[in-house]
Give the backbone structure.
Amino acid sequence: MDPLIRVDRISKSYGSHMVLNDISLEVRQGEILAVIGPSGAGKSTFIRCLNGLEQVDRGSVTVAGQPVTSVTSVAGRVGMVFQQFNLFPHYTAIDNIAAPLRTIKNMPRPQARDRAAELLESVKLADKAGQYPSTLSGGQQQRLAIARALSMSPDIMLFDEPTSSLDPELAHEVFDTIQALARSHMTLLLVTHQMNMVKNFAARVLFLENGAIFFDGTFDALTADADPRIRQFLKKIYP
Amino acid sequence: MSLDFSFLIPYLPQLAAAARVTLTIGVFSFVLALAVSVLVGVLRSGRLPWIVNFLLGIYVEIFRNTPLLIQLFFIYYGLPTFGIVLTPVTAAVIGLSLNSGAYMSEVVRAAISSVNKGQYEAAFCLGYNRYQVFLHIVLPQAFRIALPTLMNYFTTMIKETSLVSVLSIAELTRVGSQIYARTLSPFEIYITIGAVYFVMTYSVALLCRWVEKKGIKWTP
C-alpha cells in the first residue's frame, strides 16, 4: 500500500538559518506519530510543511498522491489544530463548525447545524453550542478546534503543540479527545512536549534536532536509546 | 450682565430648520465616508497592482494633509473651472465625506491588518479561499475593531459641518451668525447653537454606544 504521506528530501531556510535539512519520511494510513525535540528543532515548521502552511525550498511533500503545493492544495484533507486554537471569535461554538461547512461545502443550514451538533457531542461540548469561544475554557476551546478540523472529514490530523498553552488539568481533556481520535484509526501527527501523550498512544516517535530526523522509532526504543542528545532531552522533559 | 433668551423665540423655527440641515449633511456625509473608507481601506489591504495602491495613497495623503476648509473651497469654487458646478450642499457632502473617508480608510486598513494571522491560517486549512476568508472571517472581526473609532468620526463629522457655513448653506453656524447680526446678542445665540450641537453629537454618541453593545455580541 502506498504511504498516505510521503516527504521526499525537503529542506527549508529562513534567511541563512536552515530550519529543515533534507528530511524524508513516509507515513502509512492510521499511523500515529509524535514529533518531539528541543525548541527550535523545526518541529512546527515540519508539520506546517505537510499541509502547505509553509512552502518547502527543496524536495516535495505528497499527501494521498496529491502534491502539496500550497495550503489550498490539500485544504480540508489535512486537518490542523493549533497551539493557540485559532477559533473564529465572531462565531458561536456551533457556528465555528457549521459556518465553514456552509461556506466551503455549500451545505444547507439545517444539515450543517446537525453535523456540527454531532461533532460538538463527540467532543463533549453539546451544551456549549450557543456560546462564543471567549466564554469557553482553554480545554473546551481546543476541543472545539479539533471538532472543527474534523468537520471537513480529513484523512490526516496535524496537532501543533495542542496542549502547550493549557493548564495540566485542561490539557487532560484535550488529551482524552485526541486519544479517542487515535482509537478511530485516524492518521495523526502530533508535535508535543508532553511525554505522557507520546507514551500513551504514539506508536512511532520522531526526534528532530537541528532540522533533521535524529531518531525514528517506538517510544520504548527511544527511552532505551543510549545517544547522549536523546538522553539529555528526555532527562529534561521526562525525568 | 443679564441673560435673556426670550428674544430667540421667534427664531426657533429657523434654528430647527438649520439643525435639520446640519444633521442631514452630517448623516449623508458620514454614510458616504463610511462607504469610501471601507472601499479604500479594503482595497489598500489587498494585493493590488501598485498603481491602484499608489493612486489611493495619493488620495488619502492629500485629504489628510490639507485643511478641510481649503478642500471645500476647491470643490465648490475651484471645480467649476473644469466645468463641474455643484450645489453648495452637494459640494459640502462631497468635501466632508472625501475628507473623513480618507481618515476612516486608515482606521479600516489598520483594523484589517490587526486581525490575527492565525485566523487566516485556520480558515485556509479548512478550505476557505482568499475571498471567503476576507468576507467571512476577516471583515467581521475588523468591523468590531474599527467600529468605536468609526463612530467617533460620526460625532466629529457633525461638528465639522459648521465649516460648510462658508459655502452659504443655511446650517446651524451660519443661521446663528445671521441671528447674531440681527440681534447683537452673541452670548445667548452662540450658547444656544452650542447646546444644539451638543444635543446632536451626544445623541449620536449614545446611539453609537448602543450599536456597539447590541450589534456585536462576541468578544475577542
User: Anything to note?
Assistant: The helical segments of chain A are 43-50, 93-105, 109-122, 138-150, 168-183, 195-201, 219-224, 228-237. The interface with chain B takes residues 51, 53, 71-72, 75-76, 78-80, 82, 84, 86-91, 99-100, 103-104, 132-134, 145, 148-149, 151-152 of chain A (CB under 8 Å). Chain A has eight helices and ten strands.
